[in-house]
Amino acid sequence: MSDETVGCARPTGTVVGEAPPEPSTTNETPENTMEVKMNVARVGGKAPDFEAPAYYRGTFTTIKLSDYLGKWVMLCFYPGDFTFV
Amino acid sequence: MISVSVDSQFVHKIWDEEELAKMVDGGIPFPMVADGAGNLGKVYGVYDETAGVDIRGKFLIDPDGVIQAAEVLTPPVGRSVDESLRQIQAFQLVRKTQGAEACPSGWHPGDPTLKPGPDLVGKVWKVWKPS
Asked: Residue A74 and residue B68: Cβ atoms within 8 Å?
């Protein structure tokens, strides 16, 4: 996968501040890697890391949650653009 | 601040330009993430498989990457910016004091904090009266 853009949002499978697992040490295929190694969000635990495409101040960019280590982050999900609430 | 929905970054752009910039001077000042397949919503427990959307979930993540607060609402009711800021200020105070001080129910900046320890057991009523 290219470094410049991320085709779709994907959790890295690790939490922020943790190195990715060694890909060669298991029998995972690219198809099932995400499901097998998934860390799930819970209060008091490390946030699951991700890389995803984003719109930011007029440009398209890639956001990686672990780039925000050292800062407070408010991560807000919502049902959709142009919804009313 | 990072926002996430299943809309593409292209739709985010048009929503920002056509509507949000008319409500917020200069448009949205934070990244708007595209989560088309709901992959992020799934690991954060907010993806609605039936509707195919990420419902309203808010996660406050501290500088170490630890999730300190989470709130999830169904779509028809919005969150409170004031409450989110209050929570950030409370968690920042707790972090600054390395846990020596705690913020009781209804605490706002400037209110007295609690200093947990043997002397406080059974004596919270002396220092904190919920309104």
From this structure: no
Confirm if A11 and A49 have CB atoms less than 8 A apart: yes
Is there a contact between A50 and B79 if contact means CB atoms under 8 Å apart? Answer: no
Residue of B nearest to A72 (CA): B62
Q: Which H or E run includes B70?
A: strand B67-73
Structure letter (DSSP) for residue B119? G
User: A53 forms bridges with which residues in the sheet?
Assistant: A62
ipTM for the complex shown: 0.91
Distance from CA of B82 to the nearest CA of A (A): 13
Among B38, B55, B74, where does a domain finish? B74
Provide the domain count of chain A.
1
pLDDT tens-digit profile of B21-36? 999 999 999 999 999 9
Range of the domain at B117: 80-131
- Residues B53, B96 within the same domain: no
Question: Phi, psi at residue B111, to the nearest 5°?
Answer: -70, 155
Pair of tokens at residue B92? 């920042």
Nearest chain A residue to B76, by CA: A85
- Shared domain check, B64 and B93: no
Domain match, B8 and B68 both: yes
Looking at CA atoms only, how far is residue B128 from chain A in angstroms? 26
CATH number at residue B49: 3.40.30.10
Task: Please give the residue of chain B at the shortest CA–CA distance from A84.
Answer: B76
> Is the CB of residue A19 less than 8 Å away from at least one CB of chain B?
no
Q: Whole domain around residue A46: which residue ranges?
A: 1-85
Q: Identify which has the larger pLDDT, B63 or B125.
A: B63
